[in-house]
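Progress against Task 2.4 (sequence-to-structure conversion) is shown through the following example record, which the project officer requested during the mid-term review.
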Amino acid sequence: GGSTDGTRERPPGRGAPASADESTASLHPCCLVHDATKLDHGCLVFRELVRTSKVYVRDATTVPPLALLLFGGALTVHHERHVVSVDARLHFKADAKTATLVKLLRRELEATMLDKIQRPAEPSPREARLTA
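Structure tokens generated for the chain above:
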């Protein structure tokens, strides 16, 4: 179950996210969040899946929904359903105005990062708009 503050309670080491090729996974005992009974966010990112007696997630950390919306996979806004999806796998409730603003902010962040990658020493015209 979850709680009203957006955190999720779980038994230690259990409840890791489903992966693309496995239906469930457990947190590896060496993972820093393994012994936590309450995660600060409902989503985890991880670096490695390890298969021993069962499938384990290693090097995992929780991720807030806004970080997934701004830096995750393909973003799709479903105005009629009041939902924003990341990679058609993660779905977040959002009214149309908020969803549109997130999509616009993400577009600006991606363009600014691309500017900085292509011309790291030059100030980006977008940079001033984002920091103002």
